[in-house]
Amino acid sequence: MTGMLLGAMDQTIVATAGPTIISQLGGLSVYAWVFSAYILTQTVSMPIFGKLSDLYGRRKFFMLGLGIFMVGSILSGASQDIYQLVVFRALQGIGSGAFFPVAIAVIGAVFPPAQRGRLQGVFASVFGIASVIGPSAGSYLVQAIDWRWIFYINLPLGIISLILINMGLRETRDPNARPVLDWLGISSLTGWIALLMFGFLNGGTTYPWYSWQEATLFTSSAVLFIVFLIIERRAVEPVIPLGMFRIRTISSASAVSFLRGVSFYAVIIFIPLFEQAALGGSIDDGRNILYAFLFPMVAGAMIGGQLGTRAGYRGVTFGGLAMMSAGLFPLTTLTSSTHATQIMQYVAVTGFGLGITFPTVVLAIQYSVERRQIGIASSLAQFMGNLGGTIGLAILGTIQVNAFGSKLNDLLLTIKEPFRDLARPTLSDPNLIGRILATPEALAQVIRTRPEVAQFIPPLRDAFAQSVIPLFLAGFIVSLASIFASLFITGSLKQQIVARGAMAGGPDKDEPKAPTPSVVA
Q1: Which residues contact residue 390 at a Cβ distance below 8 angstroms, ignoring those fewer than 6 apart?
Q2: CA 268 → CA 37, 226, 476, distances in Å?
Q3: By C-alpha distance, which of 14, 43, 430 is closest to 205?
Q4: How far apart are CA 453 and CA 313, in angstroms?
Q5: Cβ contacts of residue 349 below 8 Å, gap of 6+?
Q6: CATH number, domain 1-170
Q7: Which one, 106, 246, 333, 517, has the greatest CB density within 10 A?
């Protein structure tokens, strides 16, 4: 949990310090890659290290991942320009991609079924706790010390985590085991995911969506994906055993995780932006709405783990997703006159339902495989969530910018000549208008220098609100699709009976025999 808290807080701390970093290092044009490089390498490395931990042991790869992450943190803090920071953030992503899935796999390998649900809920709550602590910690470090300490602060937490895992986890290995590493599978997996994510991260920003560069990236990704499938079908120890997806629970839980990632990003990224740009709220108002989403999500995660063990994964996951959808639907009715307290009520319901599903999806996948495959199985939920979130965020962001641009063109037609020609350059840039509306200081500066602009602020906020509503509608539709996918998750009665027997001190009969390597506490 200490290691996971370290990795989970990193993203939110860095986001808070972003403007200060840019003011010192420059490089606004590549600023987005400070985050994208981390997400890209983390997503690629998750299934790879999940499989490696199954073959060679969890402890060593948890410690290796933490070590890589800490080295990346030191180098990130010492960066002299934005390009160095992007490279070192990518190194951090590799490290977090190693210890995140391994941490979750340790629960399945060490603890009996009776305890896994509660512990998965507690582990899932770490992400919500990190989202709450991160912004405040980042703000304090930047103002009180220096932005570089947002990376250096990782070192004491990392050292504590290394000491705890070294003291608390012991492994035994079968001396007759001869694991084989799937180098071709790892290479092709890295290639198709990297190209796919490059395509979505650059689409509509660096390159137009219908450009030859985007076509090349997506076509190459598709070709490498086919090559990956061919390699994995023939591999002795495939990095992602394709046979796992023949198990209905794994394929449906993976689909839930992918679709849930889209809905999650639709809320956590665009709700604070809506509060500031459409409603005219402050940064603190946006943070408070985010807290209204995150606190219930933490509570839901802790409750979901308990319920999943007792009531079955399908029912609990279905109920959580239904509650998430019930919270998302009212968001499609928001306007520029909606009160912030209404939004907080809606996102609280959404967050609670979402949180319930985090541990149940992981538990459903872990129960569907033998313990020797828990590492790769545990990485699947996070891998699919990352993939869905990245793809969804790119598509949703493009929809919002295009919709806002269309609304600005309509607004431009209502302005009389000759003021229309004067306003055209500014109103033709939806990104610029969005940043001004979301930043009270920048907006106040514009009004001071050009007082005539004040009359256009209400219609601009209304236009921004209308451009964001389709994103919440898309999130709601995707959430309905995730509910349908959850119907194919099976939580067998046998597993529930065994779990109850384990609670009473009975044997853990549903566990397969000791894996290679096995993990014992």
Answers
A1: 39, 43, 197, 200, 201
A2: 20, 33, 14
A3: 430
A4: 55
A5: 296, 323, 324, 326, 327
A6: 1.20.1250.20
A7: 106
Closest CA to 113 of 372, 317, 315, 312: 312
Q: Across 315-423, where does the E strand assignment appear?
A: none
Instruction: Outline which parts of the chain fall under CATH 1.20.1250.20.
Output: 1-170, 244-506
Distance, CA of 312 to CA of 500 (rounded, Å) = 12
244-506: CATH number: 1.20.1250.20
User: Could you tell me the CA-to-CA distances from 251 to 70, 272, 310 in Å, in that order?
Assistant: 34, 33, 22
Which residues, at least 6 apart from 420, have a Cβ–Cβ distance to it below 8 Å?
412, 413
Tell me the CA distances in angstroms from 131 to 11, 44, 47, one per residue in order: 9, 23, 24
* CA–CA gap between residue 253 and residue 361 (Å, rounded): 6
**Residues facing 172 on adjacent strands:** 518
CB count, 10 Å around CB of 256? 30
Tell me if 259 sits within 8 A of 482, measured CB to CB: yes
User: Which amino acid belongs to residue 178?
Assistant: R
Gap between the Cα atoms of 116 and 105, Å rounded: 11
Q: For residues 226 and 188, what is the distance between their CA atoms, to the nearest angstrom?
A: 9
Both ends of the chain: CA-CA distance in Å?
Answer: 16
Residue 18, token pair as written in the block: 């972003």
What are the pLDDT tens digits along the chain (521 aa)? 888 888 778 766 786 677 677 767 876 556 667 877 888 888 888 888 888 887 787 888 889 999 999 999 999 999 988 889 989 998 999 998 888 878 877 777 777 766 776 777 777 777 777 777 777 787 788 878 888 998 998 898 889 988 888 887 776 655 555 567 788 888 898 888 888 878 887 777 678 888 899 999 999 999 999 999 999 888 888 888 888 888 888 899 999 999 998 888 778 778 888 888 888 887 778 778 888 888 898 888 888 877 877 777 888 899 999 999 999 999 999 988 888 899 999 999 999 999 899 888 888 888 888 777 777 887 888 888 888 887 887 788 778 878 888 888 887 777 666 555 555 656 667 777 877 787 777 788 878 877 777 787 888 889 888 988 998 999 999 999 999 999 988 754 345 444 434 433 333 444 434 333 433 33
SS3 content of the chain, % helix, strand, coil (to 5): 80, 0, 15
